[in-house]
Amino acid sequence: MSPHVSIIIVNWNGWKDTIECLESLYRITYPNYDVIVVDNGSRDDSVQKIKEYAEGRLEVNSKFFEYNPYNKPIKVFEITEDEAKQGEFNRPAYKKFDPNRRIILIKNKDNYGFAGGNNVGIKFALSVLNPDYILLLNNDTVVDPNFLRELVKVAEGDKKIGVVGPGIYCYTNHFRLWSPYGLKEGENKITYKHLFGAALLINVIPLGYTGLFDENYFLYQEEVDLLYRIATTGFSLEYSQNAKVFHKETISKERAYALYYKIRNEYYFLTKNNLGYLKLTKFLGNLLLIIAKFSLKGKIKHASMAVKGLLDGINCKMRYVISPPIPQQVQ
User: Fold this and answer.
1) Is 297 in the same domain as 213?
2) Are both 78 and 218 inside the same structural domain?
3) Which range of residues forms the domain containing residue 295?
4) Is residue 104 a part of any domain in this protein?
5) What's residue 274's pLDDT?
6) How many angstroms separate the CA atoms of 237 and 317, rounded?
7) How confident is the model at residue 179 (pLDDT cuts 50, 70, 90)?
8) What does the pLDDT read at residue 189?
9) Hey, is 179 helix, strand or coil?
10) Which of 66, 222, 291, 306 has its CA 20 to 30 A from that of 83?
11) This prediction's pTM
């Protein structure tokens, strides 16, 4: 029997992306999987729209596929955050449905960020569904029908493989490869720097040693930290060139809130994991250049947020201290 994979998607005010992702998932060739959508306290009508999609009342338009009305309705097993944490779930009823005719919808009380939202889903999957692998998948992705089969094929090749990442292609440009990041020609070893958090197949065994996401990150760098911790336990990180995932491009890279989180969290990552003075010095040098660049451009808010990110990182004042507005397209 094929290994059991629990797929976790975090949604936050992004139901249009989420239902396109779901429609691509329900046509994959892999036979043994769960789909868990964790709604991270959405303030729009995401929960209702996802249920309407599952009922067959909301069609999905995509350039990647034609909408399939024949596997609808999809049975929605809707539970609260508290029920998920307590393991309250009707598993016998759930098991009666085929993988492409069922979905678990967990409703979080608030937005816990990428790290916290995924942690709710992972804990539920591990305690109730007993999977062999966890697949983390961004809601703004579309998957190739064979992507999970290819990921599992690589993962099953060696018991010491902890994580497998697919090739990440731009949604708008199928020929531009995003992942693995920065892998030089002739370089064979995949490190925590090379894989991209939009899609990761994780063996559940190393999670028993490392724990889950560090929720102090809230947004950005949380997957880098987890990958680093998994690698330090002796498990390897791998890449499947035959597994394809298409990811929508965002425009948030130079927004002030994103700059804050990236600087705060990179400092936190380097110091938390004791990665040495050389890397920390390089980071601080790059930060000075970033502050100077935005100051010269007259973008004082960006420069000040960069400084605040560093200060909050130094003081370990993490996600409970500052809450810049998080746009819809960022989970």
Assistant:
1) no
2) yes
3) 256-314
4) yes
5) 87
6) 31
7) low
8) 84
9) strand
10) 222
11) 0.90
Looking at the fold, whether 212 and 305 belong to one and the same domain comes out as no
- Provide long-range contacts, Cβ within 8 A and 24+ apart, for 181-184: 183/239
Q: Are 62 and 180 in contact (CB under 8 A)?
A: no
Question: Any idea what the CATH number is for the domain that residue 31 is in?
Answer: 3.90.550.10
Q: In degrees rounded to 5, what are phi and psi of residue 209?
A: -95, -35
- Whether residue 285 is contained in a domain is answered as yes
Residue 198 sits in the same domain as residue 50: yes
Q: DSSP label at 216?
A: T
Report the number of distinct structural domains present in the chain.
2
Look at the alpha carbons of 23, 69, 35, 151 in this order and tell me if their dihedral is positive or negative: negative
- Residues β-bridged to residue 161: 236
CB atoms within 10 A of CB 188: 5
The reply to whether 319 falls in a domain is: no
* 182 φψ region: left (φ > 0), alpha (ψ -120 to 50), beta (else): left
Would residue 294 count as lying in a domain? yes
Q: What pLDDT, in 10s, does the model give residues 296-322? A: 889 899 999 999 999 888 886 444 333
158, burial (CB in 10 Å: exposed 0-12, middle 13-18, buried 19+): exposed
Of 37, 47, 51, the residue nearest 7 (C-alpha): 37
Q: 129-150: per-residue pLDDT in tens? A: 999 999 999 999 999 999 999 9
Mean per-residue pLDDT over the chain, rounded: 90
Q: Examine residue 145 and say whether the peptide bond preceding it is cis (omega within 30 degrees of 0).
A: no
For 175, the token pair is 């020929």
Residue 31's pLDDT band, with cuts at 50, 70 and 90, is very high
Consecutive H or E run containing 136: strand 133-137
> What gap in Å lies between CA 47 and CA 37, rounded to an integer?
10
CB 225 within 8 A of CB 252: no
Q: CA nearest 219: which of 114, 123, 299, 314?
A: 114
Q: Assess whether 239 and 269 both reside in one domain.
A: no
Residues 243 and 261 in one domain: no
d(CA 90, CA 76): 12
